[in-house]
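Handout, section B. The chain below has 157 residues.
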Amino acid sequence: MGRTRGFYVDTVQRTTTADPEAVWAVVEGIGGERGWYSTDRLWAARAVPNRLGLPPGRLRHREDPDRLAAGQRLDWWTVEALEPPRRLQLRSLVRMPGEAWLDIGLEPAADGGCRYRQTTVFRPAGAAGRAYWYAMLAPHQAVMGRLASDILGRAGG
């Protein structure tokens, strides 16, 4: 966990023997009716207080169960950037004292596997945002570590 120019950044990085295309398929298929794997209930619980503030529709929302596109809603996120099969950036729609992004990136390795990097970026809004970050840090790190393990496990890594 680090701080860079007013942003808090937390990164989970792993290497896997799984094929990068298999990992990407799991990354791009996340959310919607498939959920968020073993962390699904925690993500959903975090988003429940925001139901009234989310765009119209169900809390779970995907246009296509297998493919994403920039600008689409993905549950309580907006797909901000998409560069298949290398990068997915999501912007949080959850109410909080600040703004948050989740960035998932893949780098193919020479041995056929890949390096998986999952980065959370939080821009706090004042003292309340900074307090929120530190209050949520331990559960955040547990959920993010588990999410990375789930994605790589489902990809065969």
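Note. The chain has three helices and seven strands. Compare this with the example in section A.
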